[in-house]
Amino acid sequence: MGIQFKQVSYQYQGIKTKYLALDNVSLNIDQQGEFIAIVGHTGSGKSTLVQHMNALLLPTSGELIVFGQKLPPKKNEKINHLRQKVGLVFQFPEYQLFEETIIKDIMFGPKNFKISDEEALIRATNAAHIVGIDDTLFEQSPFRISGGQMRRVAVAGILAMQPDVLVLDEPTRGLDPKGKTELMNIFVNLHEQKNQSIILITHDMDIVSQYAKRVIVLEAGKVVFDGKKEDLFEHENFDSFHLELPTPLKILKHLEKTLNIKYKPFYDFDSLYQHLKEVKL
Amino acid sequence: MIKIRDLGFSYDGKTETLKNINLDIKSGSWVSILGHNGSGKSTLSKCLVGLLEPESGEIEIDGLLLNEENLSQIRKKIGIVFQNPDNQFVGVTVRHDIAFGLENLCMNPKEMEEKVYTYASLVGMQDFLSKEPHQLSGGQKQRVAIAGALAMEQDILILDEATSMLDPEGTEEIVQLIKRLNKEFKKTIITITHDLSFAADSDELVILKDGEIILQGTPNNVFKEEKLLKSSNLELPFEVKLYTRANKDKTIDPKITEALWEFNSSK
Amino acid sequence: MNSVMIGQYIPGDSWLHKLDPRIKLLSVVIYLVAIFIVPLKTDITSFIVLGALFLGTLLLTISARISVFKMLKGLKSIIVLLTFTFVIQVFSVKEGTMITAEPIQMSISIASIIAIILIIVVYQLTKRYIKFRVLYFLLAVIAIFYVQAVLPYIEITHYQLEIFDEGLYKSLFIFIRITTIIITTSLLTFTTMTTDLNYGVESLLKPLKIIKVPVDIFAMLLSLTLRYIPTLLIETEKIMKAQASRGVDFNESTLKEKIVQIISLLIPVFVISFNRSEDLANAMEVKGYIIGAKRTKIDQYKMGFNDYLTAVFSIIIISAVIYLKVIG
After folding, report:
1. By three-state DSSP, how is residue B81 classified?
2. Considering CB atoms only, which of C2, C3, C242 is closest to A96?
């Protein structure tokens, strides 16, 4: 199961322009256990790539298999169920809220997949608790809560569908620092406790450094790197990817340059701090 | 240049969104106002441009007291760029949007054309004058908004979370532009943000929490107060947090701490 | 970011593109009036005048450096309407001489009904493979009438088809009239940018200021609407994708579900627009905009030689047509 891209290309056809948004992409995503960061400059094809994963867009060439379903599908094959298997959270997802109450909005997703009202309520309640939305808010209008809360309600709306793979397009954009950390912790917990596969589009190399296991780098629609994050940052051609090093690694390289401390990679704050305590000059 | 005395504001008459705000902003300085969502940052900026009328206290801009009579005068001195690039773009094209404020001032068309071109060039959008907003990126739209404010030759510019909705490339464009406006063109800049990395380059930081100023000072001084910052949901940038903690920690070799300071200064 | 095109503006720098929008708009209105004034009579003068107006639009198309072929292609969408009009005229006009010696016997019979159904089915199934769709459509229509004339087996009812030459003339006349109208209005939208059209409409409405109609406010509203349509379309597409990712699927849902799905699209767009209006009002106010206050515009339109010439010609054309109608 999972998702397999086999030489997938996507030709974008505009009114005056046309270009290859995805160019011969091949990669595999497991339905469990993955924590992938997708990085690349604006226009590199990140959004196009993830919209293929839940069949919002279909390849113009090549073969894409999502949870056993070949895409593009044959004439009468239904693909809507794939959106339950691969849950996609867009940027600024709070714009998709519309129901009268918060709990009804979270239930919208599951109900679209023919889940009974009772079961949908159970799933919505669980999802709300995961993102930290208390029962007391359930009957409130989704438009009367803060922006940060609205975002969490929107994420809960996707979690309530209980997707196998969770895809997030820059989920922390626009949030204040505390909000960013809290939201990322929700995804980390899902990953650690339920072995949920998580795919994250991000521009923030520090987030990649702290959370991701695997990194896919896109450039002009092509996959230029697909592997462990450790291998990405150690890559001999790292400069050709036009990415910044995450801050902890920049600091470690600086320390090597100025104090001759042998470079040893550490990817998050706590492990780096511990390392600095133990270093003897 | 700006004097705020005992400013207070409430949206509903019960909760005080702003209380006892006292602040001086010197001409030509770059001040960043930070705080958690709901701390009153945007309310303060709206009071400064006369969109909201304070309940108590007063604001003086360049010697003029902010009140209804002086409003049109004040609007010539202070401009603002808001967060959402699409919700402040009035004109059908870039050219028309930059000209909008000038049209309101009844400027003659020839003068307007010149000013539009001058300030579009200043922000690097001179080749986009006939483009429509849906053809532009977020960063480009914000640059147009800044050009529009500059064209009105306001000496004070407020940027209210102007980069929150932008991607890193767009954010970097605006950050560079702001630095130029402050250093080269001596504009007084007030940035409202919750990004301490961005604010680290400003002359002074003002931290709001629940409508009150809880901390104020140069970035170096403010960064020492990690707990106070955290109480307003703000996080020190990675490298600053590392330095601050290392500095207090005796078990870390001081040469390392010094190297960390060097790293931060060079950024 | 760029899949939206508002209006049908085709960039170019022909004299027609550069014409003052006020003159262009006025001239188009005058031309349209002239087209309508030409009397629907079957004498040779009417035909010559209408033909001249039609040829005039073709000449204008060429001089605007727009391909005539492209212009005529635009008529494809109204071919059904035109055929319908044609048929009505043919059936209802009973003057002049019949083109056939005797009325044609048409029967609605089991045989002809079956044949008509077969024709429709075959047409629908095969039309995607045919290159010249318009011709194919017309052939199908002719076939439908033909079978009524030649298949009287198991008759239900019958009627007589009398095709008069006047009917044919009038149909042709109306066909050319509609075509000319469409080409004229297309010329306007093809060669005028929305900002200029906006200015043209605003200017022509100015006289209404005298009776205290708030023309300036309408002009600002029109300008803002034009500015936001592409943006709203893009945002609507994003909402559609977001809701599709939550399982919204128009094809595989009941009517009741469809209603909720439409609401899931409308409400977010409404909320976005509502919040936008507040932000926009603030932004405009800070830039010194006061409703109803005097303001200048950066766009200047000066009338040139071409504009005066066009105005003169328009007046000549309408005068000629009125003259012909009065004496004819």
Report:
1. strand
2. C242
Can you tell me the ipTM of this complex? 0.91
Task: Kindly list the residues from chain A whose CB atom is less than 8 angstroms away from the CB atom of residue B36.
Answer: 176, 178
Show the domain range for B123.
87-153
Interface test with A, best of B36, B37, B266 (most A CBs within 10 A): B37
Please report the pLDDT score of residue C2 as a whole number. 37
- State whether residue C174 sits within 8 Å of chain B by CB: no
**Total structural domains within chain B:** 2
What pLDDT is stored for residue A113 in this prediction? 92
* Cα–Cα–Cα angle for A140, A145, A148, rounded to 5 degrees: 135
Same domain, C32 and C57: yes
Compute the nearest-CA separation of C117 from chain A (Å).
26
With respect to residue C136, please indicate whether it lies within any of the assigned structural domains.
Answer: yes
Best residue in B95, B132, B141, B152 for a mutation probing chain C (most C CBs within 10 Å): B132
Looking at residue C157, what is its pLDDT?
82
Check residue C328 and give its pLDDT: 65
pLDDT in tens, A223-274: 999 999 999 999 989 998 889 899 999 999 999 999 888 899 999 899 999 9
Query: Is residue B164 within 8 angstroms of chain C, CB to CB?
Result: no
Q: Does the residue C64 lie in any domain?
A: yes
SS (HEC) of B155-202: CEEEEECCCCCCCHHHHHHHHHHHHHHHHCCCCEEEEEECCHHHHCCC
Tell me what pLDDT residue B249 has. Answer: 87
Note the pLDDT tens digit of each residue in C165-222.
777 888 888 888 988 998 898 889 888 887 888 888 888 888 888 888 888 888 889 8
In the prediction, which pLDDT does C5 show?
A: 46
C246 lies in the same domain as C97: no
Q: Which residue is closest to B48 within chain C, CA to CA?
A: C286
Residue A237's contacts (CB-CB under 8 Å, 6 or more residues apart) are: none
Say yes or no: C310 and C283 in one domain.
Answer: no
pTM for this model (two decimals):
0.84
Work out how many domains chain C is built from and give that number: 2
- Considering only CB atoms, which chain A residues are within 8 Å of C241? 51, 56, 90
Is B258 part of any domain? no
Cβ neighbours of A272 in B, within 8 Å: 242
Quick check: is B265 in a domain?
no
Collapse the DSSP code of C137 into the 3-class scheme (helix H, G, I; strand E, B; otherwise coil) and give the result: helix
Using a CB-CB cut-off of 8 Å, the residues of chain A touching B38 are 146
Same-domain pairing of C63 and C174? yes
Nearest-CA distance A114 → chain C (Å): 10
- Residues lower than pLDDT 70 in chain C: 1-7, 328
Q: Is pLDDT larger for residue C131 or for residue A29?
A: A29
Give the SS3 label for residue B267: coil
Distance of CA C83 to the CA centre of its chain: 16
Nearest-CA neighbor of C11 among C230, C189, C200? Answer: C189
Contact C298 B103 (CB under 8 A): yes
As given in the structure block, the two tokens for residue B125 are 């959008």
